[in-house]
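Protein 1 of 2
SEQ + STRUCT:
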Amino acid sequence: MPRTPRGAVTLAEERPRSRRRRRVSVLVTVLVVGVLAAGGWVGVQRLVHAVSGEQCRVTAGGAGYDWGPDQASNAAAITAIAVKRDLPPRAASIAIATAMQESKVRNVRFGDRDSLGLFQQRPSQGWGSAEQILDPEYSTNKFYDALEKVDGYTSMDIAVAAQAVQRSAAGEAYAQHEGQARVTASVLSGQTHAGIGCALRDPEAAGSPQDVAALLTKDFGIEPSVEGSTVRVRAGSQDLAWAVGSWAVARATDTGVVRVSTNGREWSRSMEDSALEWSTGGDVGEREVVIHLA
C-alpha cells in the first residue's frame, strides 16, 4: 500500500503511549499564562502549537472536536471506504465510534490477547492475519462486512450496532463517543462542507502525487489524474468533492499534501490557527478537487 515518508498510518504503534502528554499539558498552561501577560493572543496561538504539536479539528452543527493528525487520517480512511461502498454516513459514525473505544483510532500493534489495529480485531477469531489487520483499509472493510450483516443497523443506536459487531465485554462504552463520531463522519463524508482543518508542520519530504492518486483509488475507488505535483479529481457530486477534499486535508500528515482547493475554497498547510479552517480562494469548481503536493 503506498505511503509517503511520514507513514503515520502504515507504521502501527508498538506499545501504549506514556503519560508524557499530561506533563506537556501542564507546561502549556504555565507558558500560556506567561505569554498572555507579555505578548498577547497571537503569541499564545503560536506557542500552543509549538509546544503541543500538530492537530486537526472537525466542526459540524455548531459542535467541534479535536483530533491528532494520525487519528484524523485513520478516520478519513474509515469514512472514505464507507463512501466507496455506498454505505450511509451512519455506518462511518458507527465505525469511528468503535475505533475510538477500541484503539483511540490509532493503528496499534497491541491489545487484549491477540487484538490488533484500529478495531482490535483478533487473528485467532478469523478477522485475518496480523499483517492484514494492521492495514487500515483491510480492517475497515472487514468491520463493514460484519456491520452489514447486522439486521437494521441503520436505525439502531450507534453503541448497539457497534456492540453487535464487536461483542465487547463493555459494549455500553461505545455510546460516549457518539457525538464526536457523528460530527467526524458528517464532515469526512462530505455531508458537512469545509468542516475540517489541520495545523501541520511542513512535510519532511515532498509528497508523491502518484502515491496520493493510488491511495485515493484504494480508499474511494476513484481514478484521479496527476498533473505535475498536483492530483485532480472530478467528482460526481458536490458532496463527493467535499469528501475528497476533506480526506486530502485529514491525510496530509502522511501524504505530504500542502494545499487543497475545491468549491471556491482552499486549505493551506501551516502551524497557524488559520490552517484549522478553509479560506475563500482557489479557482476550482463545485465538483472538482485539486490536491497540491508542492
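Protein 2 of 2
SEQ + STRUCT:
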Amino acid sequence: MEIKELRCFIRVAETLNFNRAAELLNMSQPVVTKTVAQLEHKLGVKLFERTTRRVSLTASGVVLRREADGLLRHLDEVQRAVRHAIAEKSGRFSIGVTPLAMQTVFPQVIRGFRVSHPEIEVSIRELPTDAQCQALLAADIDAGFLLAPASDPELDMREIHAQKMRLAVPACHPHMKGYAGGPLPLSAFASDTFIIPPRAQNPGVHDEIIRACAVSGFRPRVKDCTEGQTCLCLVEAGMGVSFVSNRIDCATSDDMHIVDLEEPAPVLSVALAWRRNDPSPLLETLRALAVDAEKAAA
C-alpha cells in the first residue's frame, strides 16, 4: 500500500462521495476511482459498496479506515517532528500575513516574538488567505495571519482581531452630494456595482459581504477585483463602490470618499492559523502573544 492510496481512501470514506473526495484532494474523479480500485486490488477485498445513489463502506473498508486513520496520524506526527527538528536547527520560523493583519495586530505580535526569540530568523511572507492555507498544509510556512472565516480540517485557527468594514464611494456618487459625514445605510448603495475580491481568493470575506447585503435587503451586483489598490482606482473612476478596512483613511482623495456604514456592516476578522497538533514551542510563543494582542484590542 502507498500513502497516496490510503489518503485517497480516507477522503472517500469520510465523504462517501467520489466527486467530493476528488475536490478535497485536488484530483480528478477518475483518478480517485482508479486509485481506490488499485488499493482494493492490492488488498484483495472490496472496500466500498457502490450504487447509482449511494456509496458505503464494506466491513473490510470499516476496518481499513480505523487502522489507516491511526497510521496517517502517526505519519503526520513523524513529518512534523522532522520539520521542527530542521527548523530548530536552522533557527528559522516562517509566517504568512495579509495586509490587514500587517496594519493591525501583526506588528505587536512580531515585536514580542523577536524579543522572546532573538536567535530565530523570522521570515515574513505577504500572502492572501487561500495561499496561506495551502502554504501551511505544505509546511512552507509555520503560521499564518489570515482573514477569517477560513476552514480546513488539518488547520486550527483563533480569531484575534475584528473590525467593521467601511465603504469607498466615488465622489461623483449621488449620495456624496452635500455629504456631511456620518454613517449611511448599506441599502443606500443597493443599485451600485460592488467591487470585491473573487470568492476563490477569499471565500470567507466574499460570503460576509454577500451576507451583509442580503440582511440589508438586496443582492449586490458584483465586479471581481483581486488587488486592493486596483479596487480603489476603479472606485475613483466611478465604476462602483468597494469595501475597505477602517485603516484606509489615507486613501481618501478628491475623487473618492470613505464612509461609515450603519448596521449591519460587514466585519473583517484576522485569525492566527497553524497546523493542527503542531508541537512547536515557537508556535506556542506566537499563540500566546496573539492572545495578548487580542485582549489588548478588546
